[in-house]
Amino acid sequence: MSAMVSAAVFGLSIFAAGCGGRPASGKMKVAAGLPPVAYLAKRVGGDVVEVRTMLAEGRSPHDYSPGAREMRDAASSRLFLSTGMSFEEKLEQSLKRGGTRIVDVSRGIERIPMEVSCDDHHDHHDHHDHHEAGDPHVWLNVENACRMAETIRDEFSSADPAHAVVYRENCRKLIDELRACEARLKKDMAPYRGRRFYVYHPAFGYYAKMLDLRQEAFELDGREVTAARLPEILRRAKADKVRTVFTQPQFNPASVRALEREHGITVIPADPLREDLLRNFSDLGQALKAGFESDDGGAK
Which domains are seen in the chain, by residue range? Predict the structure, then answer.
């Protein structure tokens, strides 16, 4: 982040500190770096918390720089909910100096390797946030999402004890819904345990682990798939009888669209950063099930 941007955030933070993180509505003001984290915060906070998201749906966090409005929202908030993405970390020191409490909602969650392939590409290094610690997409797993919700509940209760009962009850309801969704997914996906699914960007490792599936990524080291790598991907896909590939709106997989045109592969959109996390869990499961059914039996 440039010195000018840092200075701007610092100035905004000083202003926000005097506001106490509460807008005219009386609600506690909270900022979240990512849409799924904002969803958890909105569900836990309910009607007594105002939550703003920095990253818009469809945007990639890996090349994102917050604008003036997003910085104002973060700087005027009581809490800033982070998972340690690089754009979040660049803001943290300035926000702390201004009185905003930084909360790592992913703390205590074990990171899994950022898998670029399920077979022989584990020796490659990726360029993404937390690449030393593992896959950053921690929210795409019900167990992790429940732990994140509990962290948010505890932080909200500490910052706003008057509404601690509200936060506890909202969190309990959310966790019940998440657990019920997980049970349905595991029941529906049980016939496909161990199966591979193909993705452009390897963002679904935690989701795959939850359902005992295996993701196979087109992208390697965060780069567009090359002409040299395409034949190997096609060989794998053919061996697995795969006819569907999941792509993310944060990337521009022209090569995958070419596969759709030239090899009859169906491209299905799947957004790991969709805000409605509960709905996303369910919709991803339905899309995977439909994909497996269209893959003519697939391969284990």
Answer: 1-104 (3.40.50.1980), 113-300 (3.40.50.1980)
For residue 14, the tally of other CB atoms under 10 A from its CB is 14
The angle at the Cα of 35, spanning 138 to 96, to the nearest 5 degrees, equals 85
Q: What is the per-residue pLDDT for 134? A: 84
**Intervals of the chain under pLDDT 50:** 1-20, 117-132, 298-300
Query: How does pLDDT run across 188-198, given as a tens digit for each residue?
Result: 999 999 998 98
CB 267 within 8 A of CB 243: no
Burial class, 10, CB count within 10 angstroms (exposed 0-12 / middle 13-18 / buried 19+): middle
C-alpha 59: how far from its chain's center? 11
Alpha-carbon separation of residue 227 from 201, 230, 232, 255 (angstroms):
17, 5, 10, 9
